[in-house]
Every structure is written in C-alpha cells, then in structure tokens.
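URGENT: need a sanity check before tomorrow's submission.

F., can you look over the site-specific DNA-methyltransferase (adenine-specific) record below? I want to be sure the sequence and structure line up before it goes out.
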Amino acid sequence: MAIKKSELYSSLWASCDELRGGMDASQYKDYVLVLLFIKYISDKFAGQPFAPIQIPAGASFADMVALKGKSDIGDQINKHILQPLEKANKIRLKADFNDTALLGQGKEMVDKLGNLIAIFENPALDFSKNRADGDDILGDAYEYLMRHFATESGKSKGQFYTPAEVSRILAQVIGIHQAKTTPDTTVYDPTCGSGSLLLKVADAAPTPVTLYGQEMDEATSGLAQMNMVLHNNASALITQGNTLANPKHLDGAALKTFDYVVANPPFSDKRWSTGLTPDNDKFERFKGFGIPPTKQGDYAYLLHIIRSLKPQGKAACILPHGVLFRGNAEAEIRKNLVRRGLIKGIIGLPANLFFGTGIPACIVVIDKQDAQARRGIFMVDASAAFMKDGSKNRLREQDIHRIVDAYSKQDGSDPSYARLVPLAEIEKNDFNLNLPRYLQSRQTEDRQDIEGHLRGGIPQADVDALQGYWATCPQLRAALFAPLRPGYLALAVDKAAIQTSIHQHPEFVAYTQRMAAHFDAWRSRTSQRLKKLKPGFKPKALIVELAEDLLAHYQGQPLLNAYDVYQRLMDLWASTWQDDAYLLATDGWKAETYRVIVTKKGKDGKPGKQIDKGWACDLVPKHTLVARYYDKQKALFLTMTAGIETRAAMLAELEEDHAGLDGAFSELDKINKTEVAALLKKIKHDKESADDAEVLQQWLDLKEEETQLKKKLEELEALVDRQAYEHYPRLKEAEIKTLVVDDKWLSALDAAVRGELDRITQRLTHRVKELADRYEAPLPAVAKRVEDLQSLVDGHLARMGFAWN
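Structure tokens as predicted:
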C-alpha cells in the first residue's frame, strides 16, 4: 500500500525529535534534510551509471545503515558518505555528523545517529515506489519540512524559505504558465535561499525550463542544490556568493540575462554595498535610475533584477512596503522606474507572512515588454485577506486564487481591491505608490445615527446597505422591518424570532432549495467523473480541475462568495481527499483493512510492548461503511446512546437535588455504586430515613439501567465492528467507489457548502439584531429609566435614614 502524504510528513518530522534536545531548528534541519536527500537519491539512482546524481560505491543510504552502532559512526558518515557525494556531484552537504557539541559524545552520538537513520529505514519510505506520475511527493515533503524549520527558527534564521503560497503568486503573475516555454527558457533567482521560489516557477511552466540561482549563505545554497534534485531539477545551476558584489551568472564581462526573474531578497539590507562601489558599478545596474541609500538595499536588488532581464523579460520581486513611498534617493529611483514603464503591477500582501520579519510586504511586477507604451500600473491590495497560522499569518487558497485572477485578468470590477491606475494619476501623487492612495478600503465605519438614538428607529440607510439580501429575497425585508417615519424603520418581529423569520421565510426557503439543487448538479457530474479514476492519474491535476470547475460553477450566484466555496473544497483536499487520491493513484479502488499497532516506549527509552488498537481502513473508514450498510445497528446505537445520556442526566439531577447538608448523599465522600449501596443498607430499616432511602434506591436503579445499557452498547459495537471487518473483503469495486466518492467526499463537501449558506443567515441575523439593539431605546426612554431608578434608590435610602444631596 502506498504511504499517505500526511504519514510521510509526520514520519519525517518525527526524525527531528531525535535531535531537538541538542540544537535549534536552523541547525537540525541540516541533518534531517541531508538524510532525506541521501535516502531519496539512493532509492532513485543507486546503480544507474548515467543518473543525474552519481552515488559512489560505499556512499549510499544502505552504507550509512551499515554504520549504525559503530563507535566512529559520525566520522565514517562524514568521510565515506558525505564527502564522496559532494565530490562526485559538486554539491555542498553542510552537516557535520561528528559534531560532539551538537550530537553528544560516545554512546550518546552513536545512539542518536542510529535512531535517526532508523526512521528513514521504514519500508514505507521507499521513495523509488512512492511517487505518482506528475506529482512530486518527496519535493512536497521537503517543502513541508522547510516550512516547519522556518517556523521554529525564528526571525533571524527563517529567511532561507519563501512561503509556498507567496511563491505560487509570483510564479503566476510573471505569466510563465501562458508562455511557449522550451528548455532554453531561463529563470533566475538572485537570492534563491533554499530554491523553493525557483521551483514554483518551474512547476508553473508548461514545459521544462532551465533554472539559475545564487545564494550568499553556503549552507542554504547546499539546501537549494538538494531541493533541486528532490524536485527533479538536478540540472539547475545554483551558485554560492554575494549576488550584488560578486554575481556568478555572467555572459563574458556582463551580467547574464534571463527570460524570467523572481526574488525574495533580504528586506532593507543594510550591508548591500559591502564589497561594491555603487557609483562605479561595472555592471551599470544603477545607471539612469539612481544609487540606493546606504542603509536600504531594496532597490539595489530590484535594479539588479532589471539589468538581469532580457529585453522582453518579466520579473516579480518581494519587497517591503516602504519601497512604495519612501523619499530621497528611493523616490528618485521610483520615479525613473515609473516613467520608463518598467513596473507593470504592485500587489500588497498581509503583514507577518514571512519568517524573517513581521512587516507587510508587496510584490513588484516588472515587465520590459511594451514598457514604453505602458500607461498605468495595475494595483492589488490583498493586505486584509489571510488566516492565522500559529504566530504567523498565511494566505489561504482562495486568497491566492483571487489575487492571481484579479491580476491576470486585470480585473478592476472591485476598485477597492484592484484597478489599473493611470500614470497621470501617479504623477499627480508625486510618484508615491502607496496603495491606500489609489485603492480605498470597502471597510467603512459603522456610523451611529444621532436621530435614531434620540427618537428611536432603525435608520433606513443601514437596512439599504443589506441590498444583496433584499435583491435575492425582496419580500424578506418587509417581513423583518416596518415603516416608522421617513428615513426610519421599526423591527416587525420579536428579536428572539429574527433567525426563525429568516429561515422560514418562503423566499429564503426557495433560495436554499435553489442552492441545494445547484450543488446537486455539480455533484452529479463530478461523481461520475471521479468514479472513472484509474491508477496512475495525477492527484495534483485532479484537484486543480475539480476546484476550477467548482469555482466557475458558483461564480455569479447570489449571496454566496464563489471563492469561499472554493476554499471549502481546498480544505477538504488538504485534510482528507489528498491522501485518498494518492492511495487511489497508486493502488486503485481497494479498501484494505490493517491492524493499528502502537509500540510503547520502555523505561530505558527503547521500544517496549506492542498494543493492538484495533483495525482501520484509510480509504473507506469504518463509520462510512457502517452508515451505508448497517442502518438498523446505527439506529439502535443512537437509541442506546440517548438512553445512557438520559440516565446520566437523571443521575446528575438526583445528586444535585439531594446534595445539601440534610440531603440523601450528604454522608458520602464519593457518590458511586458501592458507597450508595452501603449507605442504603445502613438506613433502609430506619423509618425516619425512608425518603433518603427512596432517593438512594432510585439512584441505584438508574445506575443499574445505565450500566446495562453501556454493556449492551459495548456488545453492539463489538458485533458491528466484527461484521464491518468481515464486510470489507466482500466489497465490490462499484461499492467502494460509491462509499468513497458519494458517501465520504461529496457528502462532506455538501455539508461544507451548506455551512456557507448558514453563514449567510448568521450574518444577516447578527446585523438585524445588532441594529435592533442599537436603536431599541431612544434617549428620552433611557433618561426616564434613569430617573425612575434614581427615585427608587432615593426611596430606599430615605427609609434607611439617609438623604441623597
């Protein structure tokens, strides 16, 4: 059976636990990623004479395994594994497996390295067999690890990684996905870090392209080289060095130029001019634009990118927001860039996206093609669209899609989000490109109406602002609001009935029915399509096709945001569908059960007793099968569960009602069957305690009923468990398809989309109630209430002999 992506990730991340005690994330990533790299290339290329990566004799993962337990294991790995691999492939594997400061000495190092290697020995991690055509499972796992390493490394050490979501945006906005690419098409990243941004561009290209990168940090450039191999781009040219002072990709004495350039340079690099004489730059990167300020290197990198572009070249660069409005030398550079028409677009991003800093950033899109004819800059403000992910913010799938859609279509239908800003308007603003100058936020202040507070009544303007609802359900407005006086309305239903009035209104009922039918239409055709999947299909291509189809299906539907529905599907893909899809792509429609064995750690930390936790089936979970084939048992299960809950509630009520000092349970330290029975035996012949005895007997009877129901429930669960387990081998392929596609996947998506409809109702209910509460009591009524309360207090004080002066 193929390994699930989620299991692969968790297994690899578990390897980090073996090292965390002795080093921080920025250090242990070197060991984990080097091991991942060696395991992968050994599985894929060992024994192949013309492979893109050569594995010298004695330098494979199997040879590393053979070193386990040896007293000099660290030194042997360095000398006989890493060094031969580096020499044969001209790569840098920066990890010292003999570092006693990080790995410990003697037996501690031997055990730690042995345990780490053992994790990669897992038969399920056979990378030669766990890769679906067109889907880079190992590359994705590498990226997963890089994100976690960056998250834990902190601000000072997380800059080796550009979040994948941002990388995907850059890859799309440069337009490489629409180009006619060939292997001669070149892509360059002058500050490539671990190479993730370059690889996202390669993924977006219709055909293989040639990748170039340079990275200053030696260890990180080694990560980039490994990353290229893991992503099947072993021919990428990654160099190490200072890009501004010593660019390595040259064409004679000049900078080599490229078709596409992407970059995430260090923000506001204060050392950018180290080793460089800016006013006499031999590559003339600043000529005609201006020299960036000494303490702000952002434009130095951008001008390097522009000089590295071919005459028709396109680029996208991540920069801090300050480059859009800072003055002095940067203002002059910005003016020259705008006047030459080099800036095609600017995309504002949320704050706190990047691991090296919390400040907001933007994407500056450069396009030399038709630069002289350019008459505007397309601006997008996506700063408010994100989700919280731990201590960082993160772009959702819907945020990425909306940004790319707006930019690629030059869609200015929502001018608060995106529009083409004419150069004349920019010039009037003295070439200040700060996005709020051009894109006014739709989030207006919720204004308080003075007359409404003084005289009562809900302002008609606030109700008119909910026009989207009234356009869909015209009569619903009249059902909720009644005329009060010109410009003001009164609530026509009780506040407690607002939600019910909306839900039960005929127009809203008809709307929800239309939306249900709308989903069913998509569900029907998608179900047929999914059931035709055969082993070898490409999961990544599948989700793109499904998601785009769903997004298009909901475009233009009233009240529902198509991107919200799209996000629901992408969430399900990440949580469940993705693993299922990879299982299907490898094994086909097979619902195989397996035992869940958990190994406990012994007192010495070594593997101890194995515990059988039952069985499971990944593709068709037990509850999915039971729901379809065991209706009677499921109904009985629900009845028994309800009975148990009822008796538990009755027991709790008895205990609460008779828990006082004179209560039936007052003598008990603990209320349990043994204690209650003993007390009942003690007092049952005492006539004065007859009432208490009756309560205790009632408690025991309920407890016995609860116990018996629990016993029968356990027996039923065991029976259904056995029947279901025996059912799996009898499942036919058509049944498995129905269980997976209809009962597991599409039912979950149906519920998720219905959740979006519920949100629509909740938003309207909340707003109507908020307005009703706000203007419920006009000022005179509030003043009268205060006066009445004051009189009441004065009366009480007078009776107590006090006078309020």
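My own read: Residues 626-730 form one domain. The chain is about 50% helix and 10% strand. If you see anything odd, call me.
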